[in-house]
Amino acid sequence: MGAGMSGAQAAAFRRLALAAAPEAVLAEVLALNEAVEERTAPLDPARLSTLIARASFAEALVDAQGRVAGFLLGFDQDATHDSPNFRWFSEHSEDFAYIDRVVVAPWAQGRGVARTLYADYAARARARGLLRMTCEVNRVPPNPESDAFHAALGFEELAQAIPLPGRMVRYLGRPLADWPDP
């Protein structure tokens, strides 16, 4: 069970590898991403397929009815990924796992979905010998919910950058060694 999730909440979701997900689940992933695109990045079916194929971690949590509660796409340091944020970590870090995006459905927020996905990815990354979990959080446009979430998990700011016009981000990192097991 993931950190921050009660036994009843953990039992309410099952893990699903996006590489094996049915089209209806992938369509829901796209819709969830579109709803928060300003805070993540655009995603169409072709791009989603490419990211899933290249990702080290591409999973969703779904409820008993098959609704997507949330999903996470993550890339280990040696992955092929064209994100300017991933590139920054590649140039400034070693032995890292990078969270490209995590999106939680509005109906599932506050139920430990993101914490569970992070903990699952952290456990896999740690098992592969990686030392640090990394991500970026928008500063412009602001994302205070994500700032609070990452602070609660012990992430610290490593740098700030403007990877794209109109977007300023904070690069965050956290050691994997003391991450609680899922």
Assembly of the depicted chains: single chain
Low-confidence stretches: 1-8
- How would you classify the helix and strand content by structural class? alpha+beta
Provide the CATH top-level class. Answer: Alpha Beta
Please tell me the CATH architecture by its name: 3-Layer(aba) Sandwich
Could you please describe the fold and organization of this structure?
This protein is of the alpha+beta class. It has one domain: Aminopeptidase, CATH 3.40.630. The protein is built from six helices and seven strands; from the N terminus they run H-E-H-H-E-E-H-E-H-E-H-E-E. Strands 1-2-3-4-5-7-6 form a seven-stranded mixed sheet, with helices on both faces. Helix 5 links the parallel strand 4 and strand 5. The longest helix has 15 residues. The protein is globular and about 40 Å long. The termini are close together.
Helix and strand topology:
Blueprint (H helix, E strand, L loop, with lengths): L6 H5 L2 E4 L5 H13 L9 H10 L2 E6 L5 E9 L7 H9 L3 E9 L8 H15 L4 E9 L3 H9 L3 E9 L2 E9 L7
Parallel strand pairs: 4-5
Antiparallel strand pairs: 1-2, 2-3, 3-4, 5-7, 6-7
Describe this protein with a few key phrases.
182 residues; alpha+beta; Aminopeptidase; seven-stranded mixed beta sheet
How would you sum up this structure in a few lines?
This protein is an alpha+beta fold.
